[in-house]
Amino acid sequence: MKTGSATMGLLFALMVIGTATAGESQDDGAMVETEKVVVTATMTEKMIQDAPGAVEVISAQEIMDMNAQTVAEAIAEATSLVVTTETGRQERPSIRGTNNNHTLVLIDGRRLAAGFKDMLGLEQIPVDMIERIEVVRGPASSLYGSDAIGGVVNIITRKPPKAFAIGATGQYGQSTYKEAEQGLGSAHIGHSWGPLGVLLAGGYQEKNGYDRDGAAPDDGDAIKLKSAGGRFSFDVNTAHRLLAGFEAVERSSVGLRDMEQLDRERDAEDRRINYFLGYEGKPTAMTSVMLRGNHSEHESDIEIDPPTAGIAGAIGDESNAERALDQLEGRLSSMLSQRHLVTFGVDYRRETREDDTGMDDDFNVLSFYAQDEYQVFDPLSLVLGLRWDDHSEFGSQWTPRASMIYSLFPNLRVKASYGQGFRAPGFMELYVPTYMRRGKEVYEPNADLDAETSESYEVGIEGEYNIVQGRLTAFRNSIEDMIEAIYDRSTGAGPNRVDYYQYQNIAEATLEGVEFEWRVKLPMGFDLSGNLAYLETEDKSTGEELEGRPDYKGSVKLGYYHPALGLRANVRLNYLGDRYYTAGSEDEVTLFSAYLSKEVAKGVTLFTGADNIFNSGDDNGVEPAFYYAGMSLSY
Question: DSSP assignment of 206-271, as one string?
Fold first, then answer.
């Protein structure tokens, strides 16, 4: 039996075992998953079972149980979401097989300026202040506009605490080869003095580079990541609050690359700062208002030694590029006639980019949107939304969405959605060449690209009974004028081979599949959960499947928690199926990881763990087995 088949069998076996065990259990404890509150699906607070579409919440405790240090690591096990490594070794989310730039990443609903090569690398966002991460699968352009064809990842941060709180964490780890040594530390402090609340957090991470074969490119860069963030609140009274905050991140990475058939050292500095000022109010018990101004900027400084010659005819330069985003938004939500919760919003943003060549680029977008959450009758509710975006470069676009929730029983629901989405091409796709996969691939720009549009359908059934909960969802996404890097030619041979691609509008692409999510609360403090997604894709112009999309992606987690002993542990299996590439497919990868923590005194916790225990996927660029231990303090 092939490794991939064996792993798929193990995934299904664990699902069956978990369900069978649940039927025998007498534990009547409540499932905490259905008690989670989400805001991203509708921009209004909803219990997760009442939110339209497929929504997943990753809590701060779950992030800790994975020992995730960045957002990229925190969402790696999410359903139907693959974290892909892009140019500059940036890590980006791909939801349901859509491109990485089809997923909109937000912090507390705020857009962020793009980074190097028009990408927002999730490895640059630490988890220091995160309360939870909400992942909405399926198009969300009716609320959020461009870039949300595949879905939205919304990072929800903590608010200033009412009582004094302080904490710190330190950790050290290294790979099984005694390389990639990593040390990190983080701390936070917060308190409220009457109406004024303050929360400050910061962290530092440093990881050594590593290389298994002794030849360029390095398998891992030497990385330093510094971060700081703050939240400030002022309660004018019980109905009106002012909010302000900031995030500042500086990340450096140094490593060898094979570029233009020569070993070159790449030294990259990324600096990001975001800050905002907002107002939240409830003029009446049935009405809420939000006003916010948001500024985000990113600067990249990259040195290649020796310098590359570049690509003939290319314009623009990423070696010292600066990007900025300014956003003004307002939103009003109000109950009408007891059956309609209506939301109206306006959003204006301006994005700019400039570099050392003197190339400056900017665009602006003005948007209006409306949504009606309509309780038709007791078991049936509808969510109807429509957004209009006027893009200064690509014209105006209407994007509707309609969702239905029908409760067959109090604990069993059918959900269905239809939505449209769109995405305007990025500056890199239009003008600037991109080096991928450590310089082994070059993506060439195309100034004649059109905007992408999409139509999506999904239907699912979900429910919970006693200690079991689950969800089964089928989806289909059809994207017109999808921008895809199409293989063009190759130069060199063997280790010196370089593959060239060019961005082109595919006439149409379809992505469809099925997702299964489940959780079972077992006896004696155990908990078994997992997900499995199957995906089929097709480029309608060639009849071939789209590159880089795994046919299967799944995970299983066996957790344990003993409150009296302060003991928490888990073992996790993660599977990524075959990925097709024109130049050569990549095999499936199966990873096993484990985590253990013990509260040894009040507010003092020791923890240890291992990622990729069996050291799988070396030939696919997966990081080797990594072992770590640390301590956290809280008061």
Answer: EE--B-SSSSSSPSB-EEEEEEEEEEEEEEEETTEEEEEEEEEEEEEEEEEEEETTEEEEEEEEEE
